[in-house]
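Quick one: structure for this chain?
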Amino acid sequence: MKQLNLVVLWHMHQPDYRDYVTKEFVLPWVYLHAIKDYTDMAYHLETHPKTKAVINFVPVLLDQLEDFTEQFSIGQIRSPLLRLLAAPELEHITMQDRLYLFDSCFLSNHETMLKPYPAYKRLHELYSTLSQRGERELIYFSGQYLADLLVWYHLAWMGESVRRHNQFVMQLMAQSEGFSHADRLQLFDLIGELIGNLIPRYRKLSESGQIELSTTPHYHPLAPLMIDFSSARDSQPDVTLPAHDIYPGGRGRVAFHLSSAITSHTQRFNEKPCGIWPAEGSLSTALLKILAEQNCHWSASGEGVLVNSLRTAYPDTSLLDRNSYLYRPYRIAGEAEQVTCFFRDDHLSDLIGFEYSKWFGRDAAENFVQSLERIYHNTPAEQNPVVSIILDGENAWESYPYNGFYFLDDLYSLLDNHPFIRTTTYRDYTAHAENSENITTLPTLAAGSWVYGTFSTWIGDKEKNCAWDMLCAAKNSFDLVMQSGQLTDEEKILANRQLASCESSDWFWWFGDYNPAHSVASFDQLFRKNLINLYHLLKLPAPAAILEPISKGNEQTEESGAMRRSS
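Got it. Here's what it folds into:
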């Protein structure tokens, strides 16, 4: 009997927010997404054991989760917001800490994470009124106000599964104000417990066979660009590239990130990853060759990459009927044929990422399943289509009521009991010999990403190219110092780790005037601080240009900027 194979890949990633000199976590997003999204996503899978999925963890995220677990275990917290949550005398904190607290504790989607809670909303209204009179007025906020604000911010970022099942959290939300230091300490301890349980929960789901765990090159580099800037011209022939012709030693750096990811994944989950989700779904033939060398069995990207590849290979062929080409696996002719490539349904993935948050959860889940049923009926009778849904497993839910609780619960329930839609994983799908008959060979691959099918989000404009040129210059210095013999083995390890953090794709994502100024400023500063720290570790002065901001962003935009549509 014909069936539709559905692979849902939830991609979990945060860049490295640690300052390697001060050891501080500059931004709180790792632990906040941990208690909200990674916790809820595990819960939904645990309560729907028949639903299969692929969970992709970027190693640098797992590094930071384990870092937080260690901080809680030894009682040395290196995150300012968490320290303030546990601080005994908030009345006496410095003005700098007050400003940091006010700057941090209203950062969320106010429609779904602030306005539903009257006590939290009132705290925001009080702040908005008094802050209009100037910074000096902020001294009049009492220690009790600051305590309530810290508790409510963390309650708003708490997973819906925790809010519904943890008695202490329910008690705090019912209490709504007047939180004591003991309350804050108990909430602090709960956060540590939730983070510490995350990796074991996902490991257990993997060991049961319900999920496949995959990985990404360690620090989330934009691998095709690191290998060859000119790969951007596969999808944008007229793109302006950085002044440097190529990233120095880029292929070796990508191989390092990949090898490191496989090692860390194997150590954490007791098995090698079968497949690799490349950072930003960015694929090129050169990257596929490196994946093949590391014995990776599958990889994936966006629909736009497949369309561009088909147009390159078959310029006279119509691509109007997506059912005829999208819902099948591919191999790329040449040295990387052992890597099976899957391409996501951009439309359905974007519905979850950007549209269904505006719907009732049940309506959205039913619409999604109906869309799959149409694919089933419109593909050839002899074909068992494989539909790939790939998107962030953390950023979308902030826009959903109740952190997407009803949508995910209804979706998994409908899929569990469907007569011809079968959830599976890429590892399980490729393990069945009969599915190899569905694999189509592509004569060429047009390099690109899951955003627009191009690399325009990371390269091509003045600010992004400037950042690449800064990184290239730092890499040249890195190579010279490494070859000079001036560093000890330990110093080389530290410098290599710092360079790896500089190579993350996330910094380039945020540069540009279409992103919110507040976020751009944070990531701009962190990227340049990483470069400064690298020069420090190399015992070299940092170029003066690194001290100046690269990008200012847009004061007018209200979009979060953390996710981008495929087209």
